[in-house]
């Protein structure tokens, strides 16, 4: 090869290498930016906050409780924007795709409690003021639904609450779903929570003193106590565990595949 052509070949190769390197860096940067500051003005991360709605943090593996603020994908919502869904037109909604056809203004959604093989709620369920399932009292430390105290996440008169099943009163309740165990009581971790080291993906709901609702799905496996601490770190004084293993979420930049029972959705007030 002549020196001149050899020089041109080497120069071209160097330029292509720089271009490819720049493309990879740009793609990586854009990927991070999409998580930290996506277009939806409701998105929030630990490093860049535009609003106080969506908690969308970079995936971080849980090593200790100090990292709990960076393990969940969730939404901070006003009670008036929250709805619960199970069936539509007599058919179980079952998925986020179907939910979006039923409620196209949904901004965020996640599964709303444990369910049976037929996707029916395991315990109490109230939708649009109608009680479709009654309270189920169950005390069995070998299964999550039997851990104490059992609780109810409810919406009534524009306010949200997490109460024990003994405290629950149905009057005026518009939406409610039962699960167990309660994770946070009076601002502290429920002392009856297992000390198990078992970690799995979990989702739950917490209530802050200002009335806002924290809906969260862990990105990685966490223990009950780590998950409870997450809600405390978010300022919640009460929180309820909803489900684990099968937990999933829908948001502006995420839509998990799966089949669920009750779904909790955040839309317009």
From TrEMBL:
InterPro entries reported in the protein's UniProt record: NAGPA
Entry keywords, A to Z: Signal
The Phosphodiester glycosidase domain, residue ranges: 107-248
Tagged with keyword Signal: yes
UniProt signal peptide: 1-23
PANTHER family: N-ACETYLGLUCOSAMINE-1-PHOSPHODIESTER ALPHA-N-ACETYLGLUCOSAMINIDASE
Protein name: Uncharacterized protein YigE, DUF2233 family
